[in-house]
Amino acid sequence: MQLLDDTLLFRFLFGFVIGAILGSFSTMLVYRIPNRISVVFPRSRCTECKTVLGVRDLVPIFSWLCNKGRCRHCKKPISSRYLYIELVVSLACAVVTCLVGFSLLLIPFYIAVVAGVVCFSIKLRI
């Protein structure tokens, strides 16, 4: 029983971390697609002061929480939608990883989670 619990915990944590990364990517898509900005270039920047974001500003979930929902440079508020989208994708990927296990089947499920959240968020203008 202990081995099963450890395996599920590891799957959940693995899925959550992958989901946080995909959630960060999802927030970028939700912002850029409706604004017709390339999803490749330019680098991510504050929407207010236009400062290019560094690595420490781009750590999913934790950057938003550590900076208390504000830009580290200009201190303007950052929408909580970024946090919510990252959390939703993280939790969805964690659950999918627990249910599917470690296999190549995870890839289409992860793609479906990202596509669903991005489409839903853009449609509702979250």
Explain the overall architecture:
This protein is an all-alpha fold. The protein has four helices and no strands. The chain has one domain.
Query: How far is the N terminus from the C terminus?
Result: 42 Å
Rg, Å, rounded = 16 Å
User: How much of the sequence is in beta strands?
Assistant: under 5%
Major sheet characteristics: none
Unreliable parts:
none
The best one-word shape is: globular
Average pLDDT across residues?
A: 93
How many distinct folded domains? Answer: 1
The number of strands is 0
What is the helical fraction, as a range of percent? 55-70%
Helix/strand-derived class? Answer: mainly alpha
What is the chain-wise order of helices and strands?
HHHH
Number of helices: 4
Features of the shown structure:
126 residues; single chain; globular; mainly alpha
Short note summarizing the structure:
By secondary structure, the protein is mainly alpha-helical. It has helices at 2-32, 62-66, 81-100, 106-124. The protein has one domain (2-124).
